[in-house]
Design a protein that fits this description.
Elements lengths: L9 H9 L4 E2 L1 H4 L15 E3 L4 H14 L3 E4 L16 E4 L6 E5 L4 E5 L4 H9 L3 E2 L12 H6 L7 H4 L2 H4 E7 L5 E4 L12 H5 L8 E8 L1 E2 L5 E7 L2 H13 L3 E10 H11 L12 E9 L5 H14 L5 E3 L4 H12 L2 H5 L4 E6 L5 H15 L4 E7 L4 E7 L8 H9 L2 H4 L14 H23 L16
Parallel strand pairs: 2-4, 3-4
Antiparallel strand pairs: 1-2, 5-6, 6-10, 7-11, 8-9, 8-10, 12-14, 12-15, 13-14, 13-17, 16-18, 17-18
Helix pairs in contact: 1-3, 9-11, 9-14
The structure holds flavin-adenine dinucleotide (FAD).
Flavin-adenine dinucleotide (FAD) binds next to β3, α5 and β10.
């Protein structure tokens, strides 16, 4: 695992730069939690700079010695972008974990990159504010990692992805320079928006060290219900009906295929008091009230009307907080990965009006290829963002090239995307090449070369390095 040697002078220089707190060797790395992929900890050295100048000096040192650097936050990324191999240096932001300021009047927080989303949300909740972004990995995902992967999540349809949440940022480069682009205002037309290049760059340009994030007013308490529909077209219409209900504000619309609900509920030991057939969709609609009427009553009114209009097969309005929590546990768990490992994951987005026909076509194409394949879906309905897993009793890892085109067919023509919110990492590099075409890929390579001329930043991620 750690057998590729580092240049002889590198480790002593790193230890001198960062001190005993700042460097971990193989034995200590083995004790860490690798996060979503064991390969995240495949490197033999782990740097933990404690200040921004130390981050910049670490990058400069690595560049001088030609050592590849893999920045890491919470290691929750789902595209293999934080995988680290022998001879590489993991650069963890775990010591840059301070919330530097919360300006409640401006609704802006300035945080160091290693602050977790949960820590930020807890801190700003004291001011009646929220980060305006939420995802299942909230306890571990860091703001820096979320910037680097342009995370989306549950709230994106209201407040945008990280690209819209970030007002400004600071980043360290392999040259040792620190770019101060830490604006705290929305209107900032000061030349080319270099900060935007770091959002979604997956650690390939430099290390994001500090972020100014636009906060939003925290919503009043939310209430959820589960709507069961025959297809995505109807689920979207139920969602629009809820949005049109006076006195209600839609907070989340999380869709799941019936087979995901059945398998995950069974795995978690949850008995839902409603039937969800494998071929149907179940959507959690979460709402808050904007006026004096109670949100659960208004939601129930909207769902009753949807039932009468034949948009919905059935629904479940939880009787208490525990029942509501169970719905979210089913949404945020992914039992199929445990029970049938080796499935293929896709993360697509589709213009919302086309979700119904897209899902039907995907099911048909996959079944026509091989009736033994199953399609599981969860997603953020209001963004048209679906996480599709193709699964079978046996691992499918060798069948990616055969199956991926079935998921991507027609997406570009319809205005969708093959890569919605998890990023490219290692997994989707080939697909990116096909999707973007040679002109865009050449431009991306040129931009990377400007920031990272020696190619040390997260080598091989997002873009293949030409040999
Ligand atoms: C249960 C679960 C639910 C999830 N739900 C969602 C969801 O709804 N929406 C969504 O978008 N994602 C989701 N994710 C994916 C993941 O949480 C996000 O991609 C998150 O943004 C990753 O943050 P991280 O700190 O864990 O980054 P890491 O996994 O550590 O790193 C991700 C990438 O960012 C780079 N990086 C990390 N920190 C920095 C930095 N400071 N500077 C430069 N580069 C850096 C890494 O090199 C890597 O390329 C989910 C993951 C899990 C496990």
């Amino acid at each position: 695992m750690t057998d590729r040697p580092y240049p002889p002078a590198f480790e002593p220089a790193l230890r001198e730069l960062l001190g005993p707190e700042g460097v971990r060797g193989a034995e200590q790395i083995a004790l860490l939690d690798a996060g979503v992929a064991s390969g995240n900890l495949g490197a033999g050295l782990f740097a933990r700079p404690g200040t921004v100048p130390e981050v910049a000096a670490t990058l400069q040192l690595a560049a001088r010695h030609g050592v590849g650097v893999v920045p890491q936050g919470g290691r929750t990324g789902l595209a293999g972008a934080a995988l680290a191999g022998p001879g590489e240096l993991i650069l963890s932001l775990d010591r840059l974990n301070r919330i530097e300021s919360i300006d409640a009047d401006s609704r802006v927080a300035v945080v160091q990159a290693g602050v977790s989303l949960e820590a930020l949300d807890r801190a700003v909740a004291a001011y009646g504010l929220s980060a305006g972004i939420d995802l299942g990995a909230r306890g571990s995902a860091t703001v820096g990692g979320m910037v680097a992967s342009n995370a989306g999540g549950i709230d994106a349809f209201r407040y945008g992805t990280m690209r819209e949440r970030v007002l400004g940022l600071e980043a360290a480069l392999p040259s040792g320079a620190v770019l101060d682009m830490l604006a705290r205002v929305r209107k900032d037309n000061s030349g080319l928006a270099l900060r935007q290049l770091f959002i979604g760059s997956e650690g390939t340009l430099g290390v994001v060290t500090r972020i100014a994030i636009q906060l939003v007013r925290a919503l009043p308490p939310r209430h959820a219900a589960l709507a069961i529909t025959a297809d995505a077209t109807r689920a979207v219409r139920v969602m629009r009906a809820i949005e049109n209900q006076p006195g209600l504000s839609l907070a989340a619309a999380e869709v799941m295929s019936g087979n995901h609900v059945a398998l995950t509920a069974a795995s978690l030991g949850i008995r839902l008091p409603v039937d969800v057939a494998a071929g149907n969709l179940a959507t959690i609609f979460s709402v808050s009230a904007t006026g004096p009427s109670a949100a659960p009553d208004l939601l129930s009114d909207a769902l009753t009307a949807a039932l009468e209009a034949d948009l919905m097969i059935d629904c479940l309005c939880p009787k208490n907080a525990a029942e509501e929590r169970d719905l979210w546990r089913i949404r945020e768990d992914w039992a199929v990965d445990r029970q049938r490992p080796g499935g293929l994951w896709f993360d697509v987005s589709v213009p919302i009006g086309g979700l119904g026909s897209y899902l039907v076509a995907v099911q048909q194409r996959v079944r026509a290829l091989d009736p033994a394949l199953d399609v599981f879906v969860v997603g953020h309905l209001a963004d048209g963002n679906l996480h599709v897993t193709v699964n079978s009793d046996v691992p499918l890892t060798t069948r990616y090239e055969e199956i991926a085109p079935l998921i991507y067919e027609g997406l570009k023509e319809s205005g969708g995307s093959f890569s919605a919110e998890h990023g490219i990492g290692l997994e989707k590099r080939r697909s990116l090449e096909k999707w973007a075409g040679p002109v865009q890929i050449d431009l991306m390579r040129s931009i990377k070369a400007v920031f990272d001329p020696r190619g040390i930043m997260n080598p091989g991620k997002v873009l293949f390095v030409p040999t």
